[in-house]
Design brief:
The structure holds two protein chains of two kinds.
Chain A lengths: L4 H10 L7 H13 L2 H17 L1 E2 L6 E2 L5 H4 L7 E5 L2 H10 L5 E4 L17 H9 L5 E4 L5 H16 L3 E4 L15 H9 L5
Parallel strand pairs in A: 3-4, 3-5, 5-6
Antiparallel strand pairs in A: 1-2
Chain B lengths: L1 E15 L3 E8 L3 E7 L20 E8 L2 E9 L9 H16 L7 H15 L4 H15 L20 E5 L3 E4 L9 E3 H9 L5 H19 L4 H4 L11
Parallel strand pairs in B: 3-5
Antiparallel strand pairs in B: 1-2, 1-4, 2-3, 4-5, 6-7, 6-8
Helix pairs in contact in B: 1-2, 1-3, 2-3, 3-5, 4-5
The chains are: A alpha/beta, B alpha+beta.
Keywords (chain B): DNA damage, DNA recombination, DNA repair
Family (chain B): Belongs to the RecO family.
Organism (chain B): Dokdonella fugitiva
Chain lengths: 198, 238
């Protein structure tokens, strides 16, 4: 590797990708140099363009090239429903799995003092502003069912209460097609506690 | 070295590599340890993702090597501490405090017992502020930073009606106008903390400022849980 400092740099740079260690990075570097220089050039251009031009929507904080993302700008989405998710991936999951027609707010994280993530980092001031506008009737809290997600949900519920907006939380329970025998006790206890009238 | 059936709590979990978690665990006999739970974020993982949560008493098996150990198994030791709402923030504060103050691989069995007791008290809905002050006192003592709570720096008995400035290095001394930057705390509050007697609201507020300044001194920095300006409700964590 010492023959080319650039190659060593490339291998090192590739390691910033998740799941890519020294060995994989080396294989990637050799692959593009040996077989796919055109592909590598395209990747480099796309990466540069994406990093340059993709920012965050000023309204919901998801990734967007425009100041307003397509969902926030859309006139067909209901403005009275606002779903709060931790990450853009969560937003995508809900968008694909449900027929939800409202709008989103993306926290880009969850409350976690040890990671240095507090209300400010999660854009809760922006959310409070949004709730104060008075358009939102229901805040749907879709943070993960972890301790940090619950703490975040609690903080969001307080925000909603202060703004006089109804807050709801995603249900936790038995997965579809699951068998009670094999479900972990915590989930089963939650599902039991949150049972619904038939 | 293999460690088996070690009681402990997860202080913090963060994603590591593609499918793993990096756990910060507070264990009884090994203190704070970093453990890698390999592959736990995959759908069909051998390790129980659902129980690898803070506030859940667990029994850990791991193989220690170098800085990080490899988690082999984890099982539930008892029911999780039932904390909700603002108490979750208190618990997160406690977890941050332990993570930041305790060095890795340094056993603190007394602090460990105090940690469990603190979460127990929070879950039993005892007043959060006083519960946190008691835990801070125990933790600091086990780390070798014990507060001097019956005598002043000159070894005279504390007087309940006297106000003191508390220096984290030397202890309490009679408060004078020049001590503006030191926490001002009454002898009665110090004595109450020392004797584990429930203080009144004013004393509790003084003790909170006192503890914050002592912890800041030993950390040489701020805790993130302190710096949150909570948007809707007053903080209960610090």
């Amino acid at each position: 590797m010492s023959s080319s400092p650039l190659l060593a740099d490339l291998v090192e740079a590739l390691r910033c990708l998740p799941g890519v260690g020294a060995k994989t990075a080396q294989r990637m570097a050799f692959h593009v140099l040996e077989r796919d220089r055109a592909g590598a050039r395209r990747l480099a251009e796309r990466l540069a363009a994406a990093v340059e031009r993709i920012g965050n929507c000023t309204r919901c904080r998801t990734f967007s090239e425009e100041p307003l993302c397509a969902l926030c700008a859309s006139s067909t989405r209901e403005r009275s429903l606002l779903c709060v998710v931790e990450t853009p991936v969560d937003q995508l999951a809900i968008e694909q799995a449900t027929g939800y027609r409202g709008q989103y707010f993306v926290l880009l994280g969850r409350i976690s003092p040890l990671d240095g993530l507090g209300p400010k980092e999660l854009g809760l001031d922006l959310l409070a502003q949004r709730l104060a506008e008075g358009e939102v009737q229901e805040l749907i809290v879709a943070t993960n069912p972890t301790v940090e997600g619950e703490a975040t949900a609690h903080m969001l519920a307080q925000l909603a209460r202060a703004a006089g907006v109804r807050a709801s939380r995603l249900a936790h329970g038995v997965p579809l097609g699951g068998e009670l025998e094999f479900i972990d006790r915590g989930t089963l206890a939650h599902a039991f506690g949150g049972r619904q009238v038939l | 070295m293999r460690v088996d059936q070690q009681p402990g709590y997860i202080l913090h979990a963060r994603p590591y590599r593609e499918t793993s978690l990096l756990l910060e665990v507070f264990s009884r006999d090994h203190g704070r340890v970093g453990l890698v739970a390999r592959g736990v974020r995959r759908e069909r993982s051998r390790l129980p993702r659902g129980v690898l949560q803070p506030l859940q008493p667990l029994l850990f098996d791991w193989i220690a090597r170098g800085e990080l150990g490899a988690l082999v198994a984890a099982e539930i030791a008892s029911a999780p501490f039932a904390l909700a709402g603002d108490l979750l923030f208190s618990a997160m504060y406690v977890n941050e405090l332990v993570s930041r103050l305790c060095a890795r691989n340094d056993a603190h069995p007394l602090a460990f017992a105090a940690y469990a007791q603190c979460l127990d008290r929070l879950a039993a809905d005892e007043p959060a502020g006083w519960t946190l002050r008691r835990f801070e006192r125990e933790l600091l003592a086990d780390l070798g930073y014990a507060l001097l709570l019956d005598r002043d720096a000159a070894d005279a008995a504390l007087l309940p009606e006297q106000d003191y400035a508390y220096d984290p290095e030397s202890g309490a001394r009679t408060w004078t106008a020049g001590d503006g930057r030191m926490p001002r705390v009454s002898g009665a509050a110090l004595l109450a903390l020392g004797a584990d007697r429930t203080p009144d609201a004013a004393q509790l507020a003084q003790l909170r400022r006192l503890m914050r300044s002592v912890i800041r001194h030993h950390l040489d920095g701020e805790l993130n849980a302190w710096t949150w300006a909570r948007p809707a409700a007053p903080p209960t964590s610090g």
